[in-house]
Amino acid sequence: MSTKARRLLKEALTLDEKERAWLAEEILSGLAPGATDPGYEEAWSAEIKKRLGELDSGKVKPVPWEEVERHMRKILDEPAAD
């Protein structure tokens, strides 16, 4: 990850939940995957069903957001590798 991306993510994580959700939606909408890949919706639907099946079967365990956030902050506090 570039230094600029790390800096932006670190700053974004200081926003409240509503602001982070809005920002994430804006960034993702800028990618416009459906415009370039007509199979996008079907592929995501299949992936979601697969992941839900893995959760339901116990094959994978969910990770609490607090743990993910701690891990992300630890990574962001480390020097960039670029």
Question: What keyword list fits this structure?
Answer:
82 residues, mainly alpha, 5 helices
The secondary-structure class comes to: mainly alpha
The major β-sheet equals:
none
CA-CA gap between termini: 7 Å
Compute the average pLDDT: 86
Radius of gyration: 16 Å
Unreliable parts: none
Count of DSSP-assigned helices: 5
Q: Name the helicity range.
A: over 70%
Give the tally of β-strands. 0
Approximate shape: extended
Oligomeric state of shown chains: single chain
**Beta content:** under 5%
List SSEs in N-to-C order.
Answer: HHHHH
Description of the molecule:
With 82 residues, this protein is mostly helical. The protein has helices spanning 3-12, 17-29, 33-36, 40-57, 65-77. The radius of gyration is 16 Å and the shape is extended.
In short:
The chain is mainly α and 82 residues long. The chain has helices spanning 3-12, 17-29, 33-36, 40-57, 65-77.
